[in-house]
Amino acid sequence: MTWFGPVSTLGECPRWDAATGTLTWVDIDGGTLHHATLHGTDWRTRTTHLGAPLAGALAVDDKTYVVALGTDLVEWSEVDGFGERTRLLDSDAVRLNEAVTDPRGRVWVGSMAYDWTAGAGAYFVREPDGRVRQVIDGGTIPNGMGWSPDGTVMHTTETRPGRITAWTVGPDGDPVEPRTVVEADGSDGAPDGLAVDVDGNLWSAFAGGGHVTCFSPSGRVLHRVDVPVPLTTSCCFAGPDRDRLVVTTGTKRLDAPALQRFPESGRVWDAGRVGAVGVELTRVGEE
């Protein structure tokens, strides 16, 4: 296992864009968007500062993204800068957390209170016409999201209380009929970012646990990938064949002894091939 990229305080939201062969991820607290391309087994990176907190960046095309910035969804172009802005949250005590696209190319984003107030979190969806709706509420730290390969099941993560939920996807694309598939007791970290493979298995990065654990769709533990730093935040499948597991990490809330013990905290880790292939992720507006 090797690491690459600059140190992030809170690395999150890794995405592999197959069209450009580019991995992107963000440093939430640093307000930075990172890009990396794979050359053989080496990753070459570059960084753009957009403003903090930056919870996610989703490709629209080769140069344009929808970014979750503070309380807003914002279109940002490497050529033209910031464009259309949609405010989702009315309080600066709450920020966006995690952003993904569903199989219909719609933007999904979570929100949470800075002080982790129970019940203050929610999930929102932005429709193709630009309308934004709150779909799920009452969460504490809504986090990783992912869809089954056939698009019929949506998975959501709540880092607090430590749960992954599977939802049936209704005819309109909205989640219904929730059922808990993973319930963590916190003794080995809490589920954070999520990736789904082509067999429908769930790969969850456990914050504070230093690992990514693979669960079957029913929640049975299948595999575990240990990462040599404690704050594993999210993961995705990258590379031309989407078969390399990459894991974002952070340094947030690690004290001085922990940072000394784990000096490569905050890097992105390439776990290589782990016997799985990730589902292909859609760009914004694609189906």
UniProtKB/TrEMBL annotation:
Transmembrane segments: none annotated. The active site is at D192. Residues 10-250 form the SMP-30/Gluconolactonase/LRE-like region domain. Its cofactor is Zn(2+). Binds 1 divalent metal cation per subunit. A divalent metal cation binds at E12, N143, D192. GO terms for molecular function: calcium ion binding; gluconolactonase activity. Belongs to the SMP-30/CGR1 family. This is Sugar lactone lactonase YvrE. The lineage of its organism: Bacteria, Bacillati, Actinomycetota, Actinomycetes, Propionibacteriales.
